[in-house]
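Exercise 7. Predict the structure of Legumain from Bacteroides stercorirosoris.
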Amino acid sequence: MKRNYPDIHLIYPKTLLWLCCLFSLLLGCSSSADEEAAIPSPAPSKVNLYKVAVIMPLSDASAKEKCERTVAWAQETIYELTVDDENCVQLDVEWYNEDTEDMEQLAMKLAYRGDLYAIIGPYASQNVEIIARECAVSHKPLIAPTASSADLVRLYAQEGFLWSLVETDISQCETLLSIALEEGCRRISLIASDDIYGQTFIDWFAFQANELGVSVDKVLKYTTGQPEAAMREALSTSPEALICVPGKPADVRKMLEQHDKESATRLLFSDNAFQTSVIESCGDLAEEIEGVGTCADPETGFDIAYKVRFGEAPTWEAYLYDAAFLTLMGVYDLQINGGTDLNTSLRKMTISDESTDNQQGAWMPGLLWVKMLGIHLQNYTCLNGASGLLAFDKNVYTNVLHSTYCHWMIYRKNFLVLDYHTTDGSHRTNANLAGWNWKKEKEQEFDSGLKEPEYPALKGRWAVIIAASRGWNNYRHQADALAFYQLLKSRGYDDDHIILIEEDDIAGHPSNFDPGKVYISPDGTDVYEGAVIDYKLSELSPADLTDIFCGKRSDRLPHVVSSGEQDNVLVFWSGHGMQGNLSWGDADNFSHRQAAELFDTLHRQRKYRKMLWLVETCYAGSVAKACEGIPGIMCMTASGEWETSKPDIPYKSVWLSNRFTYSLLSELTTRPEISLRELYYSLFRTTIGSHVQIYNEKNYGSVYRNSMKEYL
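Solution. The predicted structure, encoded as tokens:
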């Protein structure tokens, strides 16, 4: 939601008076722009020190200065309020340079140190993910000022140690699309780095574009540091807008070098470009480029205070300030009320309370003393930070509920803020779990009066189940395949009529938290028990599917589908996908062309009565649409042709299931005779972040009259 802030002349007198008082306070108590911001030197006996590690990009001298003075300012604020208090607290900061440290080694070094109360940082999501792996084990508080990857936040939801101070990039992607839409752009492309930061944009761009009524032109990934080729491809079709998600600030110049400023394509950059280093490295190339960045809510007064204190405007510094501020308030609670678990203290002060939601400016000494008094009385209220209200979802405590984004332009080598956007009032039903719960509106329409084709009597049922990935990180694909297998067994299928293809490298994997067993939910049953696996994925190639489906048995392929024109065939496929392909392991694919040839062959050879494919992959629609025009075949997919499907059920740092499949299994277990229309509608509502699609209804039959009873 865009927020238009009034001109200063139109602000009502009380607010103007407040701003004047704030301005006077800042002038009176802050150091000048030419002075170094430093913590006053207290008497050592009066200060209680709590050791923390701060990991930030420090190679650039200017960036290092900004980080150090911002943390020092937060320290000074707390010191001023507690200097005469025997419980005065300060942070004993150890600085680590994110640009040069080996993150794997640093994670092992810091996560298990007993004298370290918290880790603040790193800046980049991909580095936070590395540190988080170890902090998840040690439960060390990890306070991430700017980490915004949706997968990172969801994976560690409910673990209770990760504190992300910004919303995920689901919200930022929405904001970028909204800005493009406001400017009249209707055909938009995306280029994003192929890492955990860029992945959120890849995952959500097409889905949000669909919901907003925007046409997707291209969605492209690139290897961080090498955006040139992908940028040229993105610009080759002249989209009206191109959203650019650089993996690191240095990529911005390489992107701009591929763009003709006379081009009609409008570039919009993500927050990785909202750094002064971009202006310094790009020079004139950066003039008048636009983008989005997380920033302080203007109503907190932080931007004004920062500029008065340091003589320049901030970019993302409010979030680093809040990371230090939140840590200081947490250790102050430990000092006053006892205890050693900083996570518990932070939870007390980050639950939204309507009575405190409007106390903007409460991060400054003038109002902060009320919060500190509340700690003494154990009457906790939600903290108001420099960036805004530090309210976390009370169910998961993983990231703040709302962030403010500024729409910026680089003008005369400075960031000029054009307007502000918030996620309040967006399409989401609520703000928990990083905005995953959108109200979807782009539902398919079906013809209830569609004429039913004539089919022969049903005699038999066959099923093919494929988990098309391998490795521990892909646990969910094999787990979902096994769960689907167990569903079919419970409905009377025998193993002679089920072809199960999966690598079978999960149950016995060294990382398995319950050796020999596989689950799709932490409190569920073992879906591996009794499973009869016909082929390992690595034993087959996509070309073998034609022989398997057509019943061509051989010494190498002893298990095949021996179906005919009176048999229904049900196919479940879970794995990865890319545009026009369903991945087969790590290096092969089942393409749209191969799917079209397979469907045509099966039809000509009369190898089915009806055939239903249920496909859980990214970009599933780009392959499933190959069935269109083939009589008797229908595909239902977890995602459209430009969309990614989403994992679900995080547990022990791995995904146990996918949202589409988990919902599918729930429906088919409780309502095995459900109509295809009801099944579609249920999955459409419960599948998050993609649009469930049905292909080839007109050549299959009415989804209102056809049901899963024919397969189960």
